[in-house]
Design a protein that fits this description.
The chain is mainly α. 48% of the residues lie in helices and 9% in strands. The protein has one domain: Multidrug-efflux Transporter Regulator, Chain: A, Domain 2 (Orthogonal Bundle), CATH 1.10.1660.10. A two-stranded antiparallel ribbon has the order 1-2. A hairpin with a 5-residue loop joins strand 1 and strand 2. The model has no long low-confidence stretch (mean pLDDT 96).
Length: 46
């Protein structure tokens, strides 16, 4: 799922999710288009 969907599902702003990624607390893959892609486990980690 992309960052917008993760934000909606967790109630955490996208800016905060990007901060978590920068701090190494959350891991995101990158799709062919360069967008962050999160797995279902990211919902639990947030």
């Amino acid at each position: 799922m992309r960052i917008g969907e993760l934000s909606r599902r967790t109630g955490v702003h996208a800016h905060q999710l990007r901060y978590y990624e920068a701090q190494g607390l959350l891991e995101a893959g990158r799709g062919a288009n360069g967008y962050r892609e999160y797995d279902e486990g990211a919902v639990l980690r947030v």
